[in-house]
Design goal:
Elements lengths: L1 H6 L5 E6 L1 E2 L6 H13 L6 E2 H10 L2 E9 L3 E8 L1
Length: 81
C-alpha cells in the first residue's frame, strides 16, 4: 500500500481484485483457497477486507467502492486523499 500511495497523485485510484474475507469469513471455496495458500506459505492467504482497508487508510488511501464480482471475488477501489 505504501508504494501505491507514493505513486498516486491526490484523487488517484488503486484497484484491487480477488477473494477477500468479510467479517473474518468467506464462502467455503475461498476458505479452502485460503488454507491451500497458507499451507504453501503462512504469510499468504485470503485477506480480510477490514484489515486491507485499515492498512490502506494508514497509507492515505480511502475505500471508495467495493463491487461484487463473479466467482465470489470483489473489486476493491481505494482513492488517495
Amino acid at each position: 500500500m505504501s508504494c501505491a500511495s507514493a505513486a498516486l497523485k491526490p484523487g488517484g485510484m488503486l484497484y484491487c481484485y480477488g477473494p477477500y474475507k468479510v467479517g473474518g469469513t468467506a464462502v467455503e471455496s475461498n476458505l479452502r483457497f485460503d488454507l491451500s495458500l497458507r499451507m504453501r506459505d503462512p504469510s499468504w492467504g485470503v485477506r480480510d477486507i477490514e484489515e486491507v482497508t485499515k492498512v490502506a487508510k494508514e497509507n492515505g488511501l480511502e475505500l471508495w467502492r467495493t463491487v461484487e464480482m463473479p466467482a465470489n471475488n470483489l473489486s476493491v477501489i481505494f482513492r488517495k486523499e
